[in-house]
């Protein structure tokens, strides 16, 4: 199938390389003119490294022109960080066509941002938007056009906006991710599967000392201790309580299953935590005030969770606490400046009105 991948980070290069490796026609769009020129000069080729070795793949197109990238494709995959979504959504909005599916893995309710951008652009195309709970690859770039894939997702719970277009959207996404996609309802359900705002805020806040002391620190190895895991489970319980209060059923994909050696298989499958730490790719330099763990997962992800919890009538003391501490670290008010139903223009909607919008779209 024809797939457009938007962005130039770890996830985008993993997606482009892995899709090409699977035989799809892949077009990669990114805004960095110099990097696009260099990639083209290298023959639009990428190197994918996984447990099966090294794979040299060729992309059909590498471009800074988003219209060229998405013209005639069935699937548009955008794994860019949530704080980049607004700009990308505005650039993409005029070019969407009937039947196209925009997949955001994960998104922090970014599907709503992309749908709003299409509406604001006056584009009435019958496109659909979907999001899931994690990036489909545990991955890191090892060079400008080289990416290492440690693990591919085994289960991806996917929510769709509008929900009435879910059968088509899930069929298209399923051809790119065979035997992995699991419907979880509407886009807000998909957003409330996002693991990043649960796993990363405790790891960076409770490891703030060693993160700032050492040149590089692996939050998933030395940083994942029993005390932090207990906090992570309690924070995840707040997320699940919000899901249940809104009427979303199981499976809720509790993060504890990511670490478990038995029981229900989580999104990355069994033993993924050990493979992640064994790879060494997550021993990295983290600048707390700048890293996406803070700017995306904590600032945007937890502010969304707290906001939706308010609508659902659920108390989220830990999420609020991490928002306060993260904001103090960065000298900002994350509760006011994050991603909330109000900042998304949905603050005046009641629960029933929001559910109608999620089902029918704009």
UniProtKB/TrEMBL annotation:
Gene3D superfamilies cross-referenced by the UniProt entry: N-(1-d-carboxylethyl)-l-norvaline Dehydrogenase, domain 2, NAD(P)-binding Rossmann-like Domain
Molecular function, one GO term: NAD binding
Domain of life: Bacteria
Stretches assigned to the Glycerol-3-phosphate dehydrogenase NAD-dependent N-terminal domain: 2-101
The keyword Protease belongs to this UniProt entry's keyword annotation: no
Coiled coil: none
InterPro entries: 6-PGluconate_DH-like_C_sf, 6PGD_dom2, G3P_DH_NAD-dep_N, NAD(P)-bd_dom_sf, Opine/Lysopine_DH, Opine_DH
Pfam families in alphabetical order: NAD_Gly3P_dh_N (PF01210), Octopine_DH (PF02317)
Chain ranges of the Opine dehydrogenase domain: 183-330
Keywords noted in UniProt: Oxidoreductase
GO-annotated biological processes: glycerol-3-phosphate catabolic process
Protein name, entry field: Opine dehydrogenase
């Amino acid at each position: 199938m024809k797939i457009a991948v938007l962005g130039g980070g770890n996830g985008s290069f993993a997606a482009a390389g892995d899709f090409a490796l699977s035989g799809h026609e892949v077009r990669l769009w990114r805004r960095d003119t110099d990097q696009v020129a260099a990639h083209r000069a290298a023959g639009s080729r990428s190197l994918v490294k996984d447990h099966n070795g090294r794979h040299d793949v060729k992309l059909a197109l590498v471009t800074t022109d988003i219209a060229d990238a998405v013209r005639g494709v069935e699937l548009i995959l955008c794994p860019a960080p949530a704080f980049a979504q607004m700009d990308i959504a505005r650039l993409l909005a005029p070019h969407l066509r009937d039947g196209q599916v925009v997949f955001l893995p994960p998104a922090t309710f970014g599907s709503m941002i992309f749908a709003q951008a299409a509406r604001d652009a006056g584009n009435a195309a019958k496109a659909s938007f979907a999001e899931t709970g994690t990036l489909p690859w545990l991955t890191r770039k090892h060079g400008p056009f080289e990416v290492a894939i440690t693990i591919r997702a085994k289960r991806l719970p996917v929510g769709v906006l509008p929900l009435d277009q879910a059968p088509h959207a899930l069929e298209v996404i399923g051809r790119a991710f065979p035997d992995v996609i699991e419907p979880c309802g509407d886009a807000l359900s998909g957003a409330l599967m996002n693991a990043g705002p649960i796993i990363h805020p405790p790891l960076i806040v409770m490891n703030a000392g060693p993160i700032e002391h050492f040149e590089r620190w692996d939050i998933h190895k030395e940083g994942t201790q029993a005390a932090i895991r207990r906090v992570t489970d309690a924070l995840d319980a707040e997320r699940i309580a919000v899901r249940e209060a809104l009427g979303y059923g199981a499976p809720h994909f509790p993060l504890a299953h990511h670490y478990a050696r038995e029981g229900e298989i989580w999104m990355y499958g069994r033993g993924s935590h050990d493979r992640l730490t064994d790879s060494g790719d997550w021993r990295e330099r983290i600048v707390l005030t700048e890293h996406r763990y803070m700017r995306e997962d904590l600032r945007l992800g937890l502010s969304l969770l707290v906001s939706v919890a308010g609508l659902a009538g659920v108390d989220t003391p830990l999420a609020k606490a991490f928002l306060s501490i993260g904001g103090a670290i960065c000298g900002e008010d994350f509760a006011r400046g994050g991603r909330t139903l109000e900042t998304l223009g949905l603050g005046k909607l009641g629960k029933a009105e929001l559910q109608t919008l999620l089902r029918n779209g704009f």
